[in-house]
């Protein structure tokens, strides 16, 4: 059997459990592409609803109703023959995991069923010894740095779809998929000793959906339910979360909505007192509230070197910090369908100059379906009332503990500086070429590796001072641009002075 996994490139974590990057240890790069495509496909097909909206959005019919597992979307990859079998998991971010007990159990069951190849979609989660429901935080903690072998053994995999089973794709034929999953791996109910299993699923009509929601979510504390139908689609039904967030900006409506609030720009406060933009909220306001709140916000407008625009491309007016609002949202996600972090700008209030200053972007999250609830007159914009743990208790926030003092970026390095002058009609003209390496490309994705800048001054022009800029991640490319600009701008009587 041709192996898909180069185990020499994996990093041993504990015992046989190992982790690696898909780009380094998977021999077929198409597998990661498939995993990411399936994650995007699921995101497009799934409609997120709260219980009240679900009651009138979900059509009558028969559904597969599954308990939602709070874990990490992951795909199980399997290859096997009569001599050997291998199973590993891969998430959309490109993280490969291998050698845990659930991997071995999956390989054994697939081999016993006579399967030669498989790509299965599911949730990687931690089976808790205290009987409480899984949390995604547990996956992050255990999968990255397990304390002992018992922690590794607690990693489990709930399968909800078949993307490939010996060349057959059952993802759009859910009745067949769930039947086949249960035949190979067994049902979730009664699977206390199974680390790989079908997600807990029952069949019923739209009334059954809400009975299961009451049982699993209201009574047993599950994260939510997932409802599937080959004809009606996929629905995720969850309780709404409530958050207290600082209002740092607002935008006004246009045309017939002029004089009314369009939306608020909201932030959470990090432990060092800096503000991190988390969302905008434009829903949940009555027309009367939009008029009255806008009047309340306008006197609070403050200066800012940071700018952001709303969905109508209208710039937010930034506000003196202080106001806090309560909102609700349906979900909080910290990674894109590709597995990338969702980076948000951190801003800081300069009390002395009474203005906002931008710091840099760090990973945070996105709020799904935010809705305004009320102004919190009893709270103010401080780390205790608008704490980050409101988000981190629900989803993993990478680099959560970093503070503003940690965000000082490396100093740039000047690589070449050319200044040339020329006199025309008794007027001195100046052209300056400056090439530098930012040294920041590893620390922050906002920065390119190299920057080339032209300053072009001529007092005889309508616009005397002009600028051009080019950026690149390649030193070879940026130096070629520099040579091209030399030939274009430092010719015909121009004298280099430095």
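-> sequence recovered:
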């Amino acid at each position: 059997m041709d192996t898909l996994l180069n185990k020499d490139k994996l990093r041993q974590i504990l015992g046989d459990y190992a982790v690696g990057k898909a780009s380094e240890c998977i021999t077929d790069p198409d597998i990661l592409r498939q995993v990411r495509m399936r994650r995007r496909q699921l995101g497009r097909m799934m409609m997120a609803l709260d219980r009240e909206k679900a009651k009138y959005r979900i059509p009558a019919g028969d559904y597969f109703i599954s308990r939602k597992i709070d874990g990490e979307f992951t795909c199980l990859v399997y290859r096997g023959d009569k001599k050997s079998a291998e199973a590993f998991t891969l998430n959309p971010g490109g993280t490969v995991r291998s050698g845990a007990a659930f991997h071995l159990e999956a390989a054994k069951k697939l081999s016993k069923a006579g399967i030669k190849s498989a790509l299965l979609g599911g949730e990687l989660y931690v089976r808790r010894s205290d009987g409480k429901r899984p949390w995604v935080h547990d996956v992050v903690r255990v999968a990255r740095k397990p304390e002992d072998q018992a922690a590794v053994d607690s990693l489990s995999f709930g399968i909800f779809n078949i993307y490939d089973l010996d060349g057959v794709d059952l993802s759009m034929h859910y009745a067949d998929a769930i039947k086949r999953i249960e035949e190979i791996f067994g049902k979730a109910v009664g699977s206390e000793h199974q680390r790989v299993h079908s997600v807990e699923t029952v069949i019923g009509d739209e009334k059954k959906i809400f009975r299961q929601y009451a049982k699993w979510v209201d009574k047993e504390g599950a994260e939510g339910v997932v409802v599937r139908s080959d004809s009606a689609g996929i629905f995720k039904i969850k309780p709404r979360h409530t958050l207290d967030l600082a209002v740092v900006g607002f935008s006004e409506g246009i045309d017939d909505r002029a004089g009314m609030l369009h939306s608020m720009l909201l932030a959470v406060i990090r432990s060092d007192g800096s503000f991190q933009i988390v969302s905008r909220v434009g829903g949940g306001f009555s027309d009367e509230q939009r008029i009255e709140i806008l009047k309340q916000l306008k006197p609070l407008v403050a200066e800012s070197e940071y700018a952001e625009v709303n969905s109508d491309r209208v710039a937010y007016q930034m506000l003196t910090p202080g106001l806090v609002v309560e909102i609700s949202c349906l979900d909080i996600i910290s990674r894109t369908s590709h597995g990338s972090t969702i980076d948000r700008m951190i801003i800081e209030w300069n009390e002395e100059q009474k203005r906002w200053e931008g710091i840099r972007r760090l990973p945070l999250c996105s709020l799904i379906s935010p809705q305004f609830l009320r102004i919190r007159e009893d709270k103010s914009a401080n780390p205790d009332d608008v704490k980050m743990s409101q988000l981190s208790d629900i989803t993993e926030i990478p680099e959560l503990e970093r503070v503003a003092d940690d965000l000082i970026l490396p100093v740039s390095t000047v690589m070449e500086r050319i200044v040339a002058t020329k006199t025309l009609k008794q007027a001195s003209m100046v052209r300056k070429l400056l090439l530098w390496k930012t040294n920041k490309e590893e620390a922050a994705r906002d920065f390119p590796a190299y920057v080339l800048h032209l300053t072009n001054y001529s007092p005889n022009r309508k616009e005397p001072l002009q600028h051009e800029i080019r950026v690149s991640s390649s030193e070879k490319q940026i130096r070629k641009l520099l040579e091209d600009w030399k030939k274009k701008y430092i010719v015909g009587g121009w004298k280099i002075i430095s």
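The mean pLDDT is 90.
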